[in-house]
Amino acid sequence: MKLKLLCATLTFTLGLACTGLYAQSAQSTQSVVITDAWVRATVPGQKATGAFMKLTAKESTKLVAVSSPVAAVVEIHEMKVDNDIMQMRAMQDGLDLPAGKAVELKPGAYHVMLMDLKETLTKDRTIRLTLIFKDTKGVESKTEITLPVATTAPGSAPAAPRMGLTDMGHKH
């Protein structure tokens, strides 16, 4: 019985790793835990998209750079409203990660921007990102993660279907 349970657990774990779903569980570097990572799917011809995740540093550190083989340019961005105008800008000095506090990269806020995409990112595949962190002593660490391509955050409710007049029983 114990052997069956061990085999089932190992098979499940290997299955998650092989399908890229592992990126949704916690991944840890020496100083940063990465959870809920995903990248938004694109349509043919679309040249940019965003990647999102939660980063929790064990000690104060900074996310200073990101790269990916699927994009020529990858930047850490911030979106905010200034004088009723939504603005997006690259964070030249990186993103501070206070010790023990989760920093969420999400649509409409901090995020990783992938630009000059080299290919269409279709739903249900995975991509690689390399994240570079710098601690308070100036020591850099690098970690590579694999994250799923999705239309919405993994685990979130799917978008509500759009309804036209005929969908509500209204006929013309």
Structure overview:
Mean pLDDT is 80; it is low at 1-29 and 159-172. The protein has one domain: PCu(A)C copper chaperone (Immunoglobulin-like). It has 172 residues and is mainly beta. It is 10% helix and 47% strand. Strands 1, 2, 3, 4, 5, 6, 7, 8, 9, 10 and 11 form an eleven-stranded mixed beta sheet that branches. Strand 10 (126-135) and strand 11 (140-150) form a beta hairpin. The N and C termini lie far apart (64 Å). The protein has one helix and eleven strands; from the N terminus they run αβββββββββββ.
* Termini separation: 64 Å
The count of domains is 1
Major sheet characteristics? 11 strands, mixed
Strand content: over 45%
Count helical runs.
Answer: 1
The average pLDDT is: 80
Secondary-structure element order, N to C:
HEEEEEEEEEEE
The Rg value, from CA coordinates, equals 19 Å
Proportion in helices: 10-25%
For the record, what is the CATH homologous superfamily label?
PCu(A)C copper chaperone
**CATH level 1 name:** Mainly Beta
CATH architecture: Sandwich
- CATH topology, what is it called? Immunoglobulin-like
Multimeric state: single chain
User: So what's the overall shape?
Assistant: globular
Number of strands: 11
Structural class: mainly beta
* Low-confidence sequence ranges: 1-29, 159-172
